[in-house]
Amino acid sequence: MDITLIRLSSFGDVVLTQPVFKALKKLNFHTTLITKKKMHPVVRNNKDIDRIVFIEDIDDKFISDFHTDYLVDLQMNVSSQTIYRQMKTIRKKVIRKYYFKRWLFVNTRLYLKYPDVITRYRDAVEQTAKIKLDLEKLEFSPAPAADINVKEPYVTLSLISKWKTKSYPYALELVDLILNNTDFNIVILGENDLEISSERVINIKEDFPIDKSAFIIRNSRLMVTVDSLWMHISIGMKIPTIAIFGATSSRLGFVSRYNKPDIIMEKFLFCRPCTAIGNDICPVMNFQCMKSIKPEEVFKIIRNECNS
Questions:
Q1: Which of 10, 68, 104, 247 could in theory staple to 4 by disulfide, Cβ–Cβ 3.0 to 4.6 A?
Q2: Euclidean distance between the first and the last CA atom of the chain, given in angstroms as a whole number
Q3: Binning pLDDT at 50, 70 and 90, where does residue 141 land?
Q4: Which fold has domain 154-307?
Q5: Sheet of 185-189, strands arranged across
Q6: Cα–Cα distance measured from residue 266 to residue 273, given in angstroms and rounded to the nearest whole number
Q7: Taking every pair of C-alpha atoms in the chain, what is the biggest distance, in angstroms?
Q8: Which H or E run includes 71?
Q9: Quick check: pTM over 0.90?
């Protein structure tokens, strides 16, 4: 049997499809993922995906020739629905996204429990194919090699997001604490503008392939990350993970029993979460969700985790 899942973005959401694809392969499904070309680095090493189709390559001929028994739209936006509606299949379904409950949580702080992202993926697939999936914890497959070597021992940091309210404001202070009080080298990942002059720090900018960056950090003692793609990758690679949440929340659905960080740092303030995915301006203009998580507090946890 053939099954096709549509998930076009973002990087983290595409990574979170992995447990579903693995469960489908255990049931001998032939699996296809439809996604964007820029997502390729986070899925190209996943052996549970038999075929990857890029939405940019889909035209009328492709749609008329394409066959799948089951089709599941895990994205549910204009682009994904355009494809979804044109494709012929035995049975198809869209994911339930719980918009109202998410809106309530972000706008009123009233939390009405709803399924996490991976569980929502599973539910949509099960209902479409009339099967039961046995999900395992998230895994991430890095590139088989990379061109950068890091001297051990080292820790990995990903503290800057494209959204200012998800970025950790004390990134440089935390780097200084690690350099001055431990023997660890540091690898910095993700989009950032940090300028650090130290032979013990390697800053791998966003233009380096994601799967190769993942290979580099495979022996990291731990990862300290904000709510980002790298949180999911480090969890999927079984690296001890400290996750810092600012404007978003660990209860929004991107953390679950399948991809839970070892330690979650977040402050329960009246004003958060103020967004589901991040934004550039703090609504109350004080950014206390991040500023109240001091670098000394994070460093203490790093030291305890590394010594345990």
A1: 68
A2: 47
A3: very high
A4: Rossmann fold (3.40.50)
A5: 201-204, 185-189, 154-158, 223-226, 241-244, 263-265
A6: 10
A7: 62
A8: strand 70-73
A9: yes
Whether residue 19 is preceded by a cis peptide bond, meaning omega within 30 degrees of 0, is: no
Amino acid, res. 130: K
pLDDT of residue 307: 84
Q: How many residues does the chain have?
A: 308
pLDDT the model gives residue 147: 86
Beta carbons of 248 and 268 less than 8 angstroms apart = no
261-275 tens-digit pLDDT? 999 999 999 999 999
Amino acid at 237: M
- The beta-strand segments (E) located in 171-296 are 185-189, 201-204, 223-226, 241-244, 263-265
The CATH number of the structural domain formed by 2-129 is: 3.40.50.2000
For the ranges 7-21, 49-63, 78-92, 200-214, which has the lowest average pLDDT? Answer: 200-214
d(CA 225, CA 222): 10
Return the domain boundaries, the chain: 2-129, 154-307
